[in-house]
Amino acid sequence: MDRWFFLAQDQPLKHYAAGQFIYLQDTEADQFYYIASGTVKCFLSAESGEERILAFHHGGELIGEASFFDRQPRVSSAVAASPCQLIAIDRGHLQEVIHLHPDVALSLLEYLARTVRLLSVHVDGNFLPADQRIARHLLTLTPGPDGAILCTHEEIGASVGASRVTVSRTLAHFARMGWLQTGYRMVRLLNRSALERLLTATEELLH
Known about the structure:
By secondary structure, the protein is α+β, with helices and mostly antiparallel strands. Helix content is 43%, strand content 25%.
């Protein structure tokens, strides 16, 4: 069973066309969203108009939960990268679900911790070489029940600031090393510890 089944159960679907905004940076976060299908791009916007992609989220994931829980304006924007179906979760519904299914609260805490870790990657990841930025990004992503991480080379490149060619070359190298397996729009990590060791030496030098 999907761990967010009880959040989504019997809730209406909202349909978004590709390119349609779901929420905007600096707006009130009175709800968060469960992605039933499709891909959503979350990004930061600077006053200069420059954008920095944080992540691409897929079906089965949550978006907008961090600002929802701390009751502060949203720190990023979200736009449908493909046709999407989303379910909006407000405070009343969330309270009802947690009252009936307390384990959902623990799952939400774990998901929030992952969100914080993902943001920390973007804060100091610019100091790492491309292969280590890619490795670190992959380690922040949550695999599905079959162990596959849904992502494309373009999405990884946009998230870490690397070209598609660099991402493809790096993933091919990781695959030859036996650290991961690549497929159509997916990656399956086979040796997380090897990717973590790749980061250790450089991160120790930076600190």
